[in-house]
Amino acid sequence: MNLAAYRADAEEFVSSLDREYYLHFAGLQDEFDIETIYERHAELFTRDNVRRLREDGTPQLLEFAVQGLIGRELKAEQAEVARREAALEIEVDGQRMPWRQAPVVQVNEPDPDRRAAIERASLDASTEALDPLLREMLERSHALVRELGWPSMRVMCEELSGIDLVALERQTAAFAEATEDEYEALLSGPLERELGFGFERLRRSDFGFFFRAPTLDGLYSDGRLLGSLEQTLDGLALNPPGVITDAEPRPKKTPRAFCSPVRVPDEVYLVITRRGGRDDYETLFHEAGHAQHFAHMPASLPMEHRYLGDNSITESFAFLFQHLTQNPAWLRARLDVADPEAIEAQARAAKLVFLRRYAAKLAYELELHGAPPSLDPLREVYARRLGDALHVKWPSESWLSDVDPFFYAASYIRAWALETHVRRLLHERFGELWFEEPEAGAFLKSLWAEGQSVRGDELLHELTGAELDFGALLDDLQLAARS
To answer: How far is CA 293 from each of CA 347, 364, 447, rounded to the nearest angstrom?
Structure first.
């Protein structure tokens, strides 16, 4: 097998797909023409090439080929889901809005009943328009996995990624158990401040408004959003020319921020839909972490080390930059925040919600992708696991849409743990103002220069000799002593 030719074609495919993703989900074009791209590069994803890469290729290229084969088989359904999302509208109290913009409206809605009505309309619309396709894609992907010789999606993803998902779930379950008694107590104060009530009235539709944290708007002014990032990057002497920030509002722009590395390192898009306040800062800095990571990879790295590999690495750098927006030293230096106590309490509470949510998601997805005899009972499993984790009645309607492909939830989970170590290392070496030190930027660039050539656990072992364990988040949340 000619690996050089395969790499060149693979890079062109990934670049074309990321460009199409950017143009559609940034709201710049209605079409999501991935079918043409898959057909143009059809030879990448043949069963014969999967067999050859098992014999001669790198683990990253094999994983790419298998996932691409499944993606090619589902390309028409993926394109149709995106088309329906872009065209879908909902109506609440006589007001019509694009389905993709509904979450932005919801997180800025002060009336909890109207928030619930927006969520209900969104869920009803997606259940009718999207769920049949999502279920078809799920069932077809499971069948393809079996055709390729694996007994389940879980087994396949574990083998291709080298990550023991069952062992990871044991770590997240232990974290959830250790934080169970503290959970409501830690959230109660911030909930009361932002919502005016606590768990006795809390609904899932309230979480977005809670994360949005409008009482903190005076500390996170919209006018300083982009400037604070620019100052931070200047302090670290990070100025790669390849990063393009897209913060323009568009009706069909997805509310979910993303980074699209179209040409690594020379053309990397950072896309954000503004919601306002703290939420915008966290989202912008998270995606900036991705963008800086990709934009500092040497073009000479093999394509699989620039575009593929263990995404817990790029997610860890995204979380590292995101964490700055709650760092007291950064808040004083960049936003003139004299008393960050309310911000720290809010950030700590929000992070605990996310950690427990993803622990529950991983457990659910292990069941979903573990060759269940029937998918039907999994809808209620989803609602129960998420509801138990977050202590609210969780709607079951998002049991299909709240699933990222190929256990991407595991990348987030591992990244949260990895980030705590990298952040601690930066603080120890360069002080609490590490974000103002060009030497800290040089250290990050030395890590980014490796791309994703190793797994997150291997990178951590190289840096500190430590093992990657989700339990590190207990100490990060200052809960270790009470666990």
So the answer is: 24, 31, 9
- The share of the chain scoring above pLDDT 70, in percent, equals 99
Burial class of 224 by CB neighbour count within 10 A (0 to 12, 13 to 18, 19+)? middle
Q: Which positions ≥6 away from 420 have C-beta within 8 Å?
A: 472, 473, 475, 476
3-state secondary structure of 203: coil
Amino acid 357 reads R
- Structural tokens at position 421: 């170590």
Kindly report the three-state secondary structure assignment for every residue of 374-412.
Answer: CCCCHHHHHHHHHHHHHCCCCCHHHHCCCCCHHHHHHHH
CA quadruple 382, 385, 391, 393: dihedral positive or negative? Answer: positive
Q: Would you list the domain boundaries of the chain?
A: 3-161, 165-482
pTM over 0.90, yes/no = yes
Q: Which CATH class is domain 165-482?
A: mainly alpha
Q: Are 414 and 168 in contact (CB under 8 A)?
A: yes
Supply φ then ψ for residue 244, to 5 degrees.
-115, 120
CB 482 within 8 A of CB 443: no
- The answer to whether the beta carbons of residues 326 and 343 sit under 8 Å apart is yes
Q: pLDDT tens digits, residue range 231-267?
A: 999 999 998 999 999 999 998 999 999 999 999 999 9
Q: Residue ranges of the alpha helices (H) in 88-111?
A: 102-107
Residue with tokens 């979380």: 319
Strand partners, 268: 243, 261
Phi, psi of 385, rounded to the nearest 5 degrees: -65, -45
Q: Nearest to residue 335, comparing CAs of 221, 211, 433?
A: 221
Phi-psi region of 213 (alpha: psi -120 to 50; beta: other; left: phi over 0): left
95-98 vs 243-246, strand pairing mode: unpaired
Map residue 261 onto helix, strand or coil: strand
Exposure string of 318-354, with b = 16+ CB inside 10 Å and e = fewer, is bbbbbbbbbbebbbebbbebeebebbebbbbbbbbbe
